[in-house]
Amino acid sequence: MTDTDLTSARDALRASLTPYGLWVRGPRLPSGAAELADLAAELDESPYGAMWLGGSPGADLPAVRELLGGSRRLVVGTSILNVWLTPAQDVAPAAAEVADGFAGRFVLGVGAGHRSIVESVSDQTYERPYSRVAAYLGELDAATPPVPASRRAVAALGPRTVALARDRSLGALPFLTTPSHTREARGILGAGPLLVAEQGVVLESDPERARSLARRALEYYFSLPNYLNSWRRLGFSDEDVAAPGSDRLVDAVVAWGTADEVAARLAAHLEAGADQVAVQPLSPGSPVDEWRVLAPALQVPSA
């Protein structure tokens, strides 16, 4: 693949992305194919132009085909496929089939995941995650059929991994960050590569209840070194990142308040250089109702 091919793929995907997308774990989606197709059709009439599927969906890419097939314009991506748990050769045929069937609307997002998951469900030793992601990109290049840089993106928090995403994929998919991270990532990426920033949201104006819901959603991440290190790089202290997290950290990482207040927080990522903000409702229950409540408040920042 030439640099020109990758640039063209980035430009084409950027043109099809709306400023706002959605991030959701598979278990929070409807389970039936017809329900997924109906949801995708509804999203065609909303401000949301992409669905990013969390939780390492698996080599056969469940839900991806139904969502793409039910929509005229929706971009669907994995965010992310775990490079330790899903061999590149296993996912490559499904990725090629989906990409060929829905030209330009599927992105294979890959990333290192977490030691606690990898070592609990496999016999692998989780070490040198940056090197493993880099090697996995090479395995995708060599797979039959290949998954080239023009069809994949990389989960990236630290500067080295953001640079890897810049050099060997469509771009970066940061998670649990802030607009200041978005600004730093855009500086590393430059103007060409894509940047899709996930943002957790809680539609609740009462500070005590909003922070309680946010902390419930963040609880797991306080045990994961990569997120603790990412927050420290953003200027948070050891006291801030100690579970259950300081108010300062929670307020920075989770956007809460009225729909208009949350929308302003999302727009801050766009102003900092994101091509799209992937909205993740964190309150219990189905996220669909919160997507609907938030949608009328979403506006595209003026240039």
Walk me through the structure.
This protein is an alpha/beta fold and 303 residues long. It has a single domain, classed as Luciferase-like domain (TIM Barrel). The protein contains 14 helices and 10 strands. Helix 8 (179-189) packs parallel to helix 13 (259-271). The mean pLDDT is 95.
Labels describing this entry:
303 residues; alpha/beta; ten-stranded parallel sheet
Question: Topology, pairings included?
Answer:
Blueprint: H1 3-16, E1 20-25, H2 33-43, E2 48-54, H3 64-69, E3 75-78, E4 81-82, H4 88-101, E5 106-111, H5 115-121, H6 129-142, E6 152-154, H7 159-168, E7 171-172, H8 179-189, E8 194-202, H9 207-218, H10 225-233, H11 238-241, H12 247-253, E9 254-256, H13 259-271, E10 276-281, H14 288-294
Parallel strand pairs: 1-2, 1-10, 2-3, 3-5, 4-5, 5-6, 7-8, 8-9, 8-10
Helix pairs in contact: 8-13
Q: Rg to the nearest angstrom?
A: 18 Å
CATH-level-4 superfamily name: Luciferase-like domain
List low-confidence stretches: none
Shape: globular
CATH topology: TIM Barrel
- Give the % helix: 40-55%
Order of helices and strands: HEHEHEEHEHHEHEHEHHHHEHEH
Mean pLDDT: 95
Number of distinct beta strands: 10
Query: Which CATH class applies here?
Result: Alpha Beta
Distance N to C terminus: 33 Å
Strand content: 15-25%
* CATH level-two architecture: Alpha-Beta Barrel
